[in-house]
Amino acid sequence: MLISLVRNELEKTWRSRWMVFAVLAGLFLLIAVGLYGFYVYHEHRWNPPPPAAWQGDLRHEMANNQATIDNLEKIKQQGGPFSGGRFNGLRLDDAIANLHREIAGDQYLLDNNIAPVSAFAMTRAALFGLGGIIMFVLIRIFGWLAAEQIAGERSDRTIAILLSRPPSRTQVLLAKAIASFLTSLGVVVISFLVAYAIFGFLMGSMGPVTGQVGLALDGSKPLNPTNLVVMPIPIFLLLCLGATMLAVLCVQGMSLLISVLTGRWAAIGITLAVLFGATIVSSVVSAIISLISGSSDTAHFLNYAFFNVLAPVGSIAPIFGNGPTQAGKGMSEFGSEVATLAVWTAAFFAAGWFFFHHKQEAG
Amino acid sequence: MTAMPAMVEVDRLSKDFGKVRALDDVSFSVAKGEVFGFLGPNGAGKTTTIRILLGLLHPDGGTAKIGGHDCWGDHARAAPLFGATLEQPGLYSYLTGRDNLRQFARMLGPVDERQITDLLALVGMTERGDDKVKRYSMGMRQRLALAQALLGKPRLLVLDEPTNGLDPNGIHGLRILLRKLATEQGLTIFFSSHLLSEVEELCDRVVVLHRGEVRAAGPLSELMNVKCFSYRIDVSDVNRALDIIRSVDGARAETGTIKDSITVTSETDIARRINHALVSAGVGVDQLVRTQRGLEDIYIELTGVPSGSPLSAPPATVGAQ
Q1: What is the pLDDT of residues A147-164, one digit of tens each?
Q2: Which of A113, A140, A160 is the last residue of a domain?
Q3: Contacts (Cβ under 8 Å, ≥6 apart) of A327
Q4: Could you give the C-alpha distances from A142 to A7, A9, A20, A138, B142, in angstroms and in order?
Q5: What are the CA-CA distances from residue A284 to residues A166, A262, A288, A299 (Å)?
Q6: How close A12 comes to chain B (CA, Å)?
Q7: Do A284 and A135 share a structural domain?
Q8: Which residues of B lie closer than 8 Å to A, measured between beta carbons?
């Protein structure tokens, strides 16, 4: 019975909202064509560049870092007005020490054949396609679609027939949640594949799919033996996909809860207001707190709000390069965000189920 | 009440919406195979009762059962026994009529395409079954909703204002179809409508609900046989005639809806006495007609809806001068 109900929901979503998916497909196509056009214009070539091994990139980075160290040492030895200055916000001695650590970290990766996470087309596509701006947009579309699941039936006056039929309310709600999840999974996988194809082209190779990648526990520091999590590429991909879909599920849980309680337009309005507005309000609050306290870490508690952690993949690592990123990123933060999302998701679905089970449909 | 086993049992049902009491101690039952009329003006509590029967609302007091199963607490067992249509047909406008039936059929088990085709034919929708519902008229939606209610071969049909939007031919067709379903398939029909003539022609028994209370319940034949006489008198001077008629023992008179006419009701037959009194007083009587007391008259008496409804039954002439 549940499978039949899920099939019903998938059919309804597709037949009523095919235009949304058509627009998304058009957008993907437009982005791909635009990027290709930019590539041709910038690189003066139609075909992909020759593939470059990640080891070469790392050696190049090490050479650059060594050159920077040499320059900083020269400035120090010459004395003068710049010798007491700062580099990248650090005192020269600290900057030089950091660069040495980066070189040592890179050398460790080379020696142990551990690629940085941005080394391959597939891992870059996972970071880009399952995090960042793409998921920011998609997750709001998924929220909107889920907000219509129950409220739309109420507006169409089909809720009475739906609930008067033999399947229990639990089954009806579960079918709607599963159908929403499957639909969004399909879109997310397609968006990842599009990103994978784009990065495969730009990097000249679809790259290995069975190697290992290294991830920083603390993204603000370079990879080194004490700041490293190593995992196979497929596991990394599944980790990113799982975290992304958990965020999607969290939003769908919230949307379904709102949908249970309100009519169609109220549900859509409240859902989008939360997904857009709450993030903006939170950013303002975070800025004020940071300004008052003088430290960005003081406002970190806001990351326990679900709407601030809806793109956990974006917290794993910067999408391009292996350099250090801002504080509060890396696998530790990723784990914290996933745990936060899991708690909120469970709470949303439990509340949605409770209210749907007891909701009286007076018409 | 009837001796046959009950398909619907409503016992001391009550329901409040905030401070408004929608249902107050409502009790009735519908026997298996019966065509049951559910009457009442707007706000009487009909839809609330139906929504409780369908498991959409939880009663505050009392019980509602279908086939012996509680409509809220044991919905999973009650639901397969009935099919329902509501006042506003709940259909997916972006799907075809056939796909709508497939949707609802999947909620009952494996889809039987042949049954869907048969049902579309039964409600006269074969030719439009593959059109999207958004292109349907209200009448076509009602017919498709009826087909939806008949999916899964239910034993009880709950119909809330099923004639809404139907043209006279459609109403006639629906009446024949429901009669056929009741007699040939033994289907129990719970028919809620404001069209009293439909209820009068179709139903074996009725319940009249008003302000959340049952005002009358029983076989139509019994309700119609309550002793009461009703007349329409066309006179030359209405005001004088009213005074004269009101002086006749047992007569209740009021101005009629037709010009120069008076409506009179009485518990005894006073036609000759009225006629005599008017003629003796020199008031010209153009016509004195005994009107048949229909369901509508009973309904008006019970619910207090003002007389003069355009749905009056045709008069039967008994005498004139």
Answers
A1: 999 999 998 889 999 999
A2: A113
A3: A220, A296, A297
A4: 18, 14, 10, 6, 34
A5: 49, 29, 6, 11
A6: 8
A7: yes
A8: 17, 47-48, 51, 54-58, 75-76, 79-80, 82, 84, 86, 88-95, 99, 103-104, 106-109, 148
Are A332 and A210 members of one domain? Answer: yes
Specify the number of domains making up chain A. 2
Mode of pairing for the β-strands spanning B82-85 and B156-160: parallel
A244 and A96 in a common domain: no
A88 plus A195 within the same structural domain: no
- pLDDT band per the 50, 70, 90 thresholds, residue A140: very high
Q: Would you state the pLDDT for residue A325?
A: 47
Same domain? For A253 and A154 the reply is yes
User: What residues in B contact A14, CB-CB < 8 Å?
Assistant: none
Partners of B88 on chain A (C-beta within 8 Å) are 157
Task: Please tell me whether the overall predicted TM-score, pTM, comes out greater than 0.90 for this model.
Answer: no
Cβ of A11 and B99 within 8 Å? Answer: yes
CB distance B243 to B234 below 8 Å: no
**Tokens linked to B261:** 């006419």
The alpha helices in B90-129, defined as continuous H runs, are 97-106, 113-122
| CATH fit for domain B229-319, picks 3.30.1360.200, 3.30.460.10, 3.20.20.70, 3.30.70.100 | 3.30.70.100
Q: Assess if CATH 3.40.30.110 describes domain B6-224.
A: no
Chain B contact probe: residue of A10, A13, A161 with most B CBs at under 10 A = A161
In this structure, are A180 and A91 located in the same domain?
A: no
Q: Work out the minimum CA distance from A163 to partner chain B, whole angstroms.
A: 7
Chain B residues in contact with A165 by the CB 8 A cut-off are 79, 104, 107-108
Measure CB to CB from residue B57 to each of A12, A16, A360 and give the nearest one. A360
Contact A157 B148 (CB under 8 A): no
CB contact burial B145-172 (16+ within 10 A = b; e otherwise):
bbbbbbbbebbbbbbbbbbbbbeeebbe
Q: In the predicted model, is pLDDT for residue A60 greater than 60?
A: yes
Q: Which of A191, A186, A88, A175 is nearest to A132 (CA)?
A: A191
Mean pLDDT of chain B: 84
- Identify any residues that bridge with B188 across adjacent strands, giving them in sequence order: B156
Domain hosting A343: range is 2-47+120-358
Question: Using a CB-CB distance cutoff of 8 angstroms, which residues of chain B are in contact with residue A154?
Answer: none
Asked which of A113, A135, A152 is the last residue of a domain, the reply is: A113
Question: What's the pLDDT at B320?
Answer: 31
Tell me what pLDDT residue B157 has: 94
| Chain B CA closest to residue A158 | B90
- Shortest CB distance from B94 goes to which of A5, A16, A361? A16
> How far apart are the CA of B174 and the nearest CA of chain A, in angstroms?
21
Q: What is the CA radius of gyration of chain A?
A: 24
Chain A residues near residue B148 by CB distance under 8 angstroms: 161
